[in-house]
Specification:
The chain is mainly alpha-helical and 134 residues long. Helix content is 94%, strand content 0%.
Length: 134
């Protein structure tokens, strides 16, 4: 019975060894798969880090563009105000020129009245000085 029991134990040990070997083989395959998964995760993390860097760069660019846009809007507003001021000054100048031209046109059109008035003023001045020549 001891030989029989010894043979039984040897078979059990052999079976356990085969089971441990199969489990060990599964464990090795599992570790290989995990290493592949880890490499893939590292690649994905690297890609995500690059993408986040590009997003941060884009955000900085947008912020810079917004700042530049605000400065340009300020400049445009100052230019528009300056142009409005120049336009107003031009309208005042033009109105003055139109007034001056209309006076000159009236004088040219009524020259006979102007000369008569100047003559009357001159005659009145001559009389007021006692008719003496100057």
């Amino acid at each position: 019975m001891t030989a029989h029991r010894l043979a039984f134990l040897e078979k059990a040990i052999e079976r356990d060894r085969a089971e441990v070997a199969a489990t060990l083989k599964e464990l090795v395959n599992s570790r290989i798969e995990m290493a592949g998964d880890i490499r893939m995760l590292v690649k994905e993390q690297t890609a995500l880090t690059r993408a986040l860097g590009k997003i941060a760069e884009f955000q900085y660019t947008v912020k810079t563009m917004h700042s530049t846009q605000q400065r340009l809007f300020g400049r445009m507003e100052r230019i528009e105000n300056g142009l409005a001021e120049l336009r107003d000054e031009f309208h005042v100048y033009r109105a003055r020129q139109d007034g001056k031209n209309s006076v000159l046109r009236w004088i040219a059109g009524h020259w006979h009245l102007v000369t008569a008035a100047v003559a009357a003023i001159g005659f009145g001045a001559w009389i007021s000085f006692g008719g003496k020549g100057g």
